[in-house]
Amino acid sequence: MSLSLSSNAISIQPTKREALRARFSSQFISPVQVSSSTRAFSVSHVSSPSFFKFSRERLDPITASPASAAEAAPSSFRNKTPKDVNVLVVGSTGYIGKFVVTELVNRGFNVIAVARERSGIRGRNSKDETLNELKGANVCFSDVTNLETLEKSVEGLGCDVDVVVSCLASRSGGVKDSWKIDYEATRNSLLAGRKFGAAHFVLLSAICVQKPLLEFQRAKLKFEAELMKGAEEDDKFTYSIVRPTAFFKSLGGQVELVKDGKPFVMFGDGKLCACKPISEQDLASFIADCVLSEDKINQVLPIGGPGKALTPLEQGEILFRLLGKEPKFLKVPIEIMDFAIGVLDFLVKIFPGLEDAAEFGKIGRYYAAESMLILDPKTGEYSSDKTPSYGKDTLEEFFEKVLREGMAGQELGEQTIF
C-alpha cells in the first residue's frame, strides 16, 4: 500500500493487502489525533515474549521469508522525493533516536516512529509525553522485543516500508539486556521491515565493536554480520552501518561537579584513550544522509565529530579554561578497576546474580582505557587521522552550554559511571 500524509489525514490507496489491513485495523489500530501533524497508533500486545537465553551462537541467522523476498521494495525508492519515502524508526525515544526522528521529519520523510507505551529512562514517559516528543512523526506504540507484536503493528499501519532506521541500544549494557536489544530486538526490526517491503536498513552501531571485549559489542557484531549476509543474498536489499565515536552526553557527566569545585577525575595520566566526540544533532544528520545517499550503500561507516581527537586530560583542560579555574585533576590508577573486576569475576562463579555487576565493571574499564577511534588492524593502534570527521558542533561548545543550562535532557540514567 502507499501512504500519503497531510496535516489532517492519512490517505491509503488499496492494494492486494487491503483485506488484511482492514482485518487488523479493527482489532489493533486506534487513531488518536494529537496535533495537526502527529498521529498515534496503539497496538494491543499479544502474548508476552518468552524468556530468551542469549547464547551468542544459538539464535538462527536472519533470512527473509519467501513472502518478504517477493514483496521487497526495489531500490528505486532512492529516486523518490522524501515525502514519498516511508521510514520506520525503531529506538525512536532513545538519546540519539529522538534527534534522528526530528531530522528525518525536517527533511520531509514520512516517518513512522516505533515506541514503547512507557518510554524514556526506566519508562518514566507517558504516551502523551512521547507523542509530544516525536511531533511530526506517526507514532506506533509497540514492542520490538516481540516479533509477532511488531509485525502486527507494521501490518496495521496499512502501508509499505521503504527504509528501516534502527537506533536501538541496550540502556544498561547488561549481559541479557545486550542480547535482547542489540541483537534480538534489532533483528526483529529487520525481519518486520523486510516483510513489509523495506529495501534498506540503516543501523546505528558503535565504533568500539572493532575490539569486542563486552557483551553488547558481541551482540552488535552478530547482527551486523547477519545484516551484511542478507544484502549479499538479495541484491535488492542494502544497508548502511553507522559506527559513531563518543557522544557529547557521555563526556558531560563531570561538568557540574567541576563547576562546583570538585576535581576532574581521570584514569592514569589522562592520556590512556582519546575520541572525536560528535553531537547528537550532527550524528542524526549523518544517519539521515544514509537513507538516500548511494555512496553509503553496503558500507560500514565510522564517524566522529569535527576537530582533533581529545584525551580526558585535554577535555578537563577545556573545562577548567571555560570556568577560569586552575586545573585540578584526580588521577585514579587503572589497576584499581582491574582488581575490582577480578573480584567480581570470581564472585560471579559463586553468585551468578552478580553477572551484570561484573559486566558493568568491564564496561567502565573499557571506556577508561580504549580510544573511540579507528583501530588500525596492522599496527593495533588507534588513529585519529583515519577517523572521519563530520558536522560542526564542538565539545567546547557543548561544555559552554552545560555550564549555562545544566545537563537537562542529557541525563546519563543507567549508563552513569561517574
Structural notes for this entry:
The protein is an alpha/beta fold. 38% of the residues lie in helices and 16% in strands. It contains 13 helices and 15 strands. It has helices at residues 18-28, 66-71, 97-106, 127-133, 147-157, 175-195, 215-233, 255-259, 280-292, 312-323, 334-350, 355-369, 395-405; strands at residues 2-5, 10-13, 32-35, 38-42, 86-90, 110-115, 138-141, 163-166, 200-204, 238-244, 264-267, 299-303, 329-332, 374-375, 382-383. The chain has a 9-stranded mixed beta sheet, with helices on both faces. A two-stranded antiparallel ribbon has the order 1-2. β1 (2-5) and β2 (10-13) form a beta hairpin. α11 packs antiparallel against α12 (355-369). It is globular, with a radius of gyration of 22 Å.
Task: Report the end-to-end length measured between terminal Cα atoms.
Answer: 49 Å
Helix content: 25-40%
Order of helices and strands: EEHEEHEHEHEHEHEHEHEHEHEHHEEH
What strand order characterises the main sheet?
3-4-7-6-5-8-9-10-12
Structural class: alpha/beta
Q: Kindly state the mean pLDDT as a whole number?
A: 82
Number of strand segments: 15
Radius of gyration: 22 Å
Enumerate the spans where pLDDT stays under 50 for 5 or more consecutive residues: 1-74
**How many alpha or pi helices?**
13
Shape: globular
Short description, anyone?
By secondary structure, the chain is of the alpha/beta class. 38% of the residues lie in helices and 16% in strands. The chain has helices at 18-28, 66-71, 97-106, 127-133, 147-157, 175-195, 215-233, 255-259, 280-292, 312-323, 334-350, 355-369, 395-405, and strands spanning 2-5, 10-13, 32-35, 38-42, 86-90, 110-115, 138-141, 163-166, 200-204, 238-244, 264-267, 299-303, 329-332, 374-375, 382-383.
